[in-house]
Amino acid sequence: xxxxxxxxxxxxxxxxxxxxxxxxxxxxxxxxxxxxxxxxxxxxxxxxxxxxxxxxxxxxxxxxxxxxxxxxxxxxxxxxxxxxxxxxxxxxxxxxxxxxxxxxxxxxxxxxxxxxxxxxxxxxxxxxxxxxxxxxxxxxxxxxxxxxxxxxxxxxxxxxxxxxxxxxxxxxxxxxxxxxxxxxxxxxxxxxxxxxxxxxxxxxxxxxxxxxxxxxxxxxxxxxxxxxxxxxxxxxxxxxxxxxxxxxxxxxxxxxxxxxxxxxxxxxxxxxxxxxxxxxxxxxxxxxxxxxxxxxxxxxxxxxxxxxxxxxxxxxxxxxxxxxxxxxxxxxxx
Amino acid sequence: xxxxxxxxxxxxxxxxxxxxxxxxxxxxxxxxxxxxxxxxxxxxxxxxxxxxxxxxxxxxxxxxxxxxxxxxxxxxxxxxxx
Lengths: 334, 82
Prior knowledge:
Chain A is an alpha/beta fold. Chain A has helices at 30-34, 41-48, 62-77, 101-109, 125-139, 206-211, 224-233, 236-246, 263-273, 285-288, 295-305; strands spanning 13-23, 26-29, 52-55, 86-90, 115-119, 145-152, 170-180, 189-192, 200-202, 220-222, 255-258, 280-281, 314-321, 325-332. In chain A, helix 3 (62-77) crosses helix 4 (101-109), helix 7 (224-233) runs parallel beside helix 9 and helix 8 (236-246) packs across helix 9 (263-273). The longest helix of chain B has 16 residues, at 5-20. The chains are: A alpha/beta, B mainly alpha. Chain A: This is Beta-ketoacyl-[acyl-carrier-protein] synthase III.
């Protein structure tokens, strides 16, 4: 060997520079959807904490939602699109196998030729992608990474399904991650358990639909009580590990933002983590519903917009869902 | 040391009372969790989790739907201790 390679120059710290949100434009009430599942507004509220969910119209897809959220995140970060050199989109509801939603999004917002790719980590996708963005920025591989969790779950619902469809909404949440003078993103605690892959699932694969068109359009299902038990009593320990890894404790946390799956899961996690009563908890699910990869940034954006959280607050965020997958980290809010 | 059926019933009653706000003496073997005690499937999972911790047993998710009455749960936990 006669030459010595240069490697990317690392930077010490990273942080989230700005967050943007876009919710589906249609407000769907419990009464609107209760009929086909033989339910009621009261039952859905008691069971899930959801009052309305937001859904997008037929003319908007995942990239449209992502674009709107991304432009708001860029504005909040005070950056122009050409300063973005990497785009990561987490989605499970984009219709094309290829090319990626991220490449099209990057071009549409004016970030072409940023490196762009999609990831599939369901409701943990945003926290997965924040972990990747943190690593890319600190390694020197990227300077400004646009992370987007975007879902149009209303394309995968069955109005007669009582397991998950009535929870779901559409939206996109975006964050810009860049270099920082101070630590802004704690270590990501993440993992998966594919032995429980059928717990939250698509009714049948596209290949099965091709073999048997009578199966109809695939939609989502979950084993609700099993997911509730896992999320409420096992996932919390990963949030605790994320605090431990970041060197903070419950008393240092200003804001707790878990994936917005069900208000009763959120309540149980708060209890299990023994968070002090003054910790602000993201509860965007009440108005927006469960938007999978978008739910954590949407909940953070709401807290910031409504003044319940502020720039500099220490937030514990955790995503968990189909896979099963989970990811958690402590971040400083932009 | 295995718990007696009476100890399991008393322990379970405390867990149910904590989750639902019902008095412990309402939790008797012949009561149905769903029909009599108005416990939904999510609260049932919370109760099961606390019972697993309290009695050191494992109650598989697929078994929970078979625990119709308080007595069913007591019997299952008693058997699972062995």
